[in-house]
Specification:
The protein has 454 residues and is of the alpha/beta class. It is built from 12 helices and 15 strands. A 6-stranded mixed beta sheet has the order 2-3-1-4-5-6, with helices on both faces. β4, α3 and β5 form a beta-alpha-beta unit. The longest helix is centred in the first third of the chain and has 15 residues.
């Protein structure tokens, strides 16, 4: 499936049809992700001086010379790989098949290897235009070494330094020459797929869920926790509509405790949640809920995203475990009782189709707006039936309120004094009972009236 870039706001990007796609391939540790960041002009792909950090094919939006295109970063391509590395190689081959052109990255300081020649044979069979990048060329001496890459038979090697940017402009010009023209722009185009971030701690089945939704092995799945590093976007047809699902790296216990690529993966997961409209938190139902699960749910709530909790691996839950799970939900998820919950098994696809109504309900609540008249009528009845308790001889009253914004709903209450936290929670609970707000956090701001000095 060719991905169409999404700007993360739920609206179209003005393009008719998908942008031209460039797949970046090469053997492990030749600097593909560093070069991708150089092309993008920002640090988007996770980079570390260790082979195998990138594992899935990850799409990014890029612009050069007034033209837009999609860059697909891939894991290291090793034709003789086995196990996890073999599945990473398969993702790179899929990326080539879906691309309009290929950027083949070779380490100029090492020269041509057997693995490079094996990749070249596959690229020739694909019949795709190929731009050869001789990476890690930091000086004139490196350019002389890069000349030896003519022997690959892919045309002129483009000397470039992904780390320092040397030669990147000439490389981008060659890339645009290989890519087809972008489609015409339609500035009146509105709408777009809703954006859902799949989050959770490592090894709860996030990637398996995305593969099940996409109907293909879109991301690499392995029993080893932490297989996913970069957020992976995928357009999925579900419930008669197109959605953008984002598979993210598992959130570790403490971001500050993570090191190397795990630290940057955690930061990108946080950014993916902030760019999404719904956070789909995946929990391993077969294991006791942990503080880590609760913290991830709280983080999604504090980010102001709509929230749906999916209890995965339900096929491993017996009657005894269900009893304890119900008690854990009552105890640990009391703060987010408003979040829809769904039981699924991503491995078999059991009840995965039930995600759609829960996602729709959460989005509807997230975008609910209450008219000022209806809100103040409700507040008047509420204060009359249950006024704020008297504290220190004073009793704060709610004078009136207004909804400042949606997505998430934010309310401003104008009062005669500060409201206790318990009373604010009471107001929020009654707001939900009256107007719904399923699957969304509610933000209340209290503005006490200033008394004029005589």
């Amino acid at each position: 499936m060719t991905q169409q870039p999404d700007n993360g706001s739920g609206t179209g990007d003005g393009q008719v049809g998908p942008l031209p796609v460039l797949a970046v391939v090469g053997r492990p540790n030749v600097g593909k992700s560093t070069l991708v960041n150089r092309i993008l002009g920002r640090r988007a792909a996770v980079v570390e001086d260790v082979p195998g950090v990138t594992r899935d094919r990850v799409a990014y939006d890029a612009t050069w010379g007034g033209r837009s295109f999609t860059v697909v970063d891939t894991g290291g391509w090793d034709p003789d790989a086995r196990g996890l590395a073999e599945r990473i190689t398969a993702q790179a081959e899929v990326a080539v098949g879906l691309a309009d052109a290929v950027l083949f990255v070779v380490d100029a300081t090492v020269g041509i290897t057997d693995a490079d020649e094996s990749v070249v044979r596959v690229l020739r069979k694909s019949k795709k235009p190929v731009v050869l990048a001789a990476n890690k060329v930091d000086d004139q001496r490196g350019e002389l070494e890069a000349a030896g890459l003519w022997n690959l038979g892919l045309g002129e090697p483009r000397p470039v330094s992904g780390l320092h940017g040397r030669g990147s402009g000439d490389l981008l010009d060659a890339i645009l020459a290989a890519l087809p023209e972008a489609p015409a722009e339609d500035w009146d185009a509105v709408g777009g797929p809703r954006r859902v971030a799949i989050v959770g701690k490592p090894n709860v089945g996030k990637s398996s869920l995305l593969n099940r939704l996409a109907g293909e092995e879109r991301v690499v799945v392995d029993d080893v926790a932490g297989t996913t590093v970069d957020p992976v976007d995928e357009l999925v047809r579900l419930g008669g509509r197109t959605w953008t699902f984002v598979d993210t790296a598992g959130i570790r216990r403490r971001v500050k405790e993570a090191s190397g690529h795990e630290y940057y993966a955690s930061l990108r997961t946080t950014a993916a949640v902030e760019r999404a409209e719904v956070a789909l938190v995946v929990v391993d139902a077969s294991q006791p809920m942990t503080e880590q699960d609760q913290r991830i749910i709280t983080a999604a709530e504090e980010a102001g995203r709509a929230l749906v909790v999916a209890f995965n691996k339900w096929d491993l839950v017996d009657e005894e475990r269900r009893h304890y799970l119900d008690r854990e939900i009552e105890r640990d998820l009391v703060r987010v009782q408003w979040a829809p919950r769904v039981n699924i098994t991503a491995r078999t696809g059991w009840h995965v189709d039930r995600l759609v109504p829960h996602l729709d309900a959460a989005l509807a609540g997230w975008e609910t707006r209450v008219g000022t008249g209806a809100l103040n009528s409700f507040l008047g009845r509420l204060v009359a039936a249950r006024p704020h308790p008297v504290r220190g001889g004073k009793q704060p009253r709610i004078l009136f309120g207004t909804q400042a914004s949606v997505a998430p709903p934010k309310f401003v209450l104008f009062t005669t004094g500060l409201l206790e936290a318990s009373y604010q929670r009471f107001v929020e609970r009654r707001l939900r009972e009256e107007f719904g707000f399923v699957g969304t956090p509610i933000h209340l701001t209290v503005r006490p009236r200033k008394r004029e000095r005589k």
